Each structure stands twice: as C-alpha cells, then as structure tokens.
Amino acid sequence: MTSPLTPTQDFKRVWLITGASRGIGALIAKAALAEGDAVVAAGRNVDAIAAALGEGPALFPVRLDVTSEEEAAAAVQAALARFGRIDVLVNNAGFGLLGAVEEATLAETRRLYETNVFGVLNVTRAVLPSMRARRAGHVINISSIGGYRSAVGFGVYSSTKFAVEGLTEALHGELAPLGIHVTVVEPGYFRTDFLDQSSLAVSPNVIGDYAPTSGAVRAVAATLNRQQPGDPEKLAQAMVELARAQTPPLRLPLGTDTLRAIAQKHEFVTRETETWRALSASTDFAAA
Fold it and tell me: pTM here?
C-alpha cells in the first residue's frame, strides 16, 4: 500500500526515476530521498522497488515498462496525482548489448532501441506537458561513455546512446526558453550490475573474423565485472548535486575514464579533420 498523501510543499524536489529497482537507479533514488526530496520510483516490478528502497511518505513506487507509451502516461498521471508536480525526470532505464554490429540480430537491435531510445521518448513526452505548464523542471537522460565515443563490441548499444545524446541536444535548445533544463549524463565504467546478465545481453551469434576485435571484448568483459573504477555511490551524489544546480550543463561526464575518452576523441577528430580539410572544403559552390 502507498503511504498517505503528503503535501508537495514538504519536499524540495519531486523526482521521477525510471529503472529504479536496482543499480544506479536505486542508488539515485536513495540519494534523493536522503536529501529530503520525494521520489517516484518507476520500474517493471513494484515489489522489487519496495524491497530495494523500503517505504515512506516521500517514496511512491509505480509500475512502468518504458516501452509502453500507455504505461508512461499512467505513471506520470499517478505521480502528479500523488505529489502535484515532477521537478526532475531521470531517464535511467536501459540495458546493454555485447557483440559486433554484424553479429547483432534485427530482433536484438529493435529490443534495445525500444528500451534505450523509444523508452526515453515515451517517458519524456509524458512528463513535459506538466513541466511546460509550470515553466520549470529538469530532464536528465542517462547516456554512457559509449554515447560520446563508440567502441568495438558495443556498437549497437553505443548507437542507442548516440541517439539519446542527439535527442538531448535538441531538447536542450527547445526547452531552455521555457525554463526547463536538460542534461545528458555520461557515466564511464562504474561498479554496478551493468556487466551482469540482468543488464547486459550478449549476442549469441559469433563470427570468427571478429575474434581480434569484438571477440576480445567478449572475452574480457566478464573479468571487468565488479572491477570497474567508478564508485556508484559517488555517482548518485553527483546526480543530487546536478539537480541542485542553478545552471546545469548540457553534458555531464562522470568518471576519469569518460574524461579521458572525450579528450582522445577530440584529438582524433581534430587531427582527421585537418588531414582532410581540403577535400571537405572543396564541395561548396565556387565563389562568384
């Protein structure tokens, strides 16, 4: 059973967090609750949310399969009926896929996009009307180090996060004049369950030609599990700090590995652009 209604003014912020039953989502929810905020914790299994987060007047578990537009609308309406507003939306629900691009089947790819991309769209579209009405709010989309630079073995997964980055950039421009902030968060490798079977699907197709590239990543992924450099508790605290910010960034990389990957990509892009600058510039109409 849910707790009795609590006046919305008792809470500094009201969060809606998808994928809140475990991993990063649950940790962000705990950090927000510890801050004195209210949390609408959304996930496919409401019992699992209660088991992870407990009970209390500031916590409202709701069932939400983000791939369902109808469930997204129902979850948002329930949240608004309970707390009256949503100040912070965290689009966290998602999973990974390990395998070469050619190895991934159409069905695997579609399933990944349904959650990682269309799920973000479903929930965001459901939340935005109430934020626009108040001319306030903060949409936070969880991307990845792989959303800024792709990597062998994670090409299809990275493509979904590239899509989230593109959507976030556009939303940032569209919503800033309406007083709504939008941020894409790019975590590196954090010590969560991301490399477990519960969060990472592995394509069963194996093509021998990719043994030195994506095949090598397959082999090493299991050894990296629970050895990642990032501290998920600190990630959760960083999210609370982000929600407090008066002028939040468009992008927030988290982890020194992400900072390093961004710097390396910038260096590569700059070098390659300069190498091919003459050909790139040659395609304009000739000056009159």
Answer: 0.92
